[in-house]
Amino acid sequence: MPRIVALLILFIPGIFAVIGIKLMRDALFNEVYTIFFHLFFQFIAGFIIFLLGLAFIGGFMVHRDRKRNKIKRKKSGH
């Protein structure tokens, strides 16, 4: 059951990352959506959406691995 919940939690940010990639690709091929009035803004919006989705997925995985002690903590230099 927890694996299904984790999969569902990662599904939505994954969709956002895919939408961000699509917006960037469409900007490169000169296909402007009506909500964006310039290709540059469409590309930047797609890049930000992609980064947010990717950051959420990465943060979720790091949190899960730290919880299971699969990642060693950094030793402080003091």
Q: Overall 3D geometry?
A: elongated
Distance between the termini: 43 Å
- Runs with pLDDT <50, length 5+? none
Summed over residues and divided by their number, the pLDDT gives a mean of 89
**Number of DSSP E strands:** 0
What does this structure look like?
The chain has two helices and no strands. The longest helix has 29 residues, at 39-67. The protein is an all-alpha fold and 78 residues long. It has helices at residues 2-28, 39-67. The chain has one domain. It starts with a helix and ends in an 11-residue tail after the last helix. α1 (2-28) packs antiparallel against α2 (39-67). It is elongated and about 50 Å long.
Short description, anyone?
With 78 residues, this protein is mostly helical. It is 72% helix and 0% strand. It has one domain.
Jot down its keywords.
72% helix, 2 helices, 78 residues, mainly alpha, elongated
SSE inventory with pairings:
Blueprint: H1 2-28, H2 39-67
Helix pairs in contact: 1-2
Pfam families: DUF2627
Keywords: Membrane, Transmembrane, Transmembrane helix
Protein name: DUF2627 domain-containing protein
